[in-house]
Amino acid sequence: MQNKESINFFLSQYDKGVYSIAIQLRKIVLENLPDIIEQPDIPAKMIAYCYGRKYSEIICTIIPSKNGVKLGFYKGNELPDLYNLLEGKGKISRDVDIKSEEQIKSAAIKQLFEDAFAAYKKRIEK
Hints:
There is one protein chain. This protein is an alpha+beta fold. The protein has a single domain, classed as Aspartate Aminotransferase, domain 1 (Alpha-Beta Complex). Helix content is 40%, strand content 23%. Strand 1 and strand 2 (46-50) form a beta hairpin. The radius of gyration is 14 Å and the shape is globular. The mean pLDDT is 93.
């Protein structure tokens, strides 16, 4: 329960629009990734969602900013991205700029969760 309180406090630092999108996105993450560990990283200004303590066990992140909310995916550069949502030029991670509740609930976002979870399962089998 302490994580939930610290996450709510962390997100409350942003304006109403960013807060609302981040809370809705958080709900969808928790619904689509069963038993996921929610880990706020306040210094990095993000919330990580993982199945363990190692960096390689991260599935995704919620990254709020004054300009909006991004949904980041660890090893996003390796995801199929059937709907061409992922952006970024980093070596590993990719993200989606979240603009609306409709986008959060879309089949495209759900597909990214499914692909990211499948990629995670492959990583831990090695």
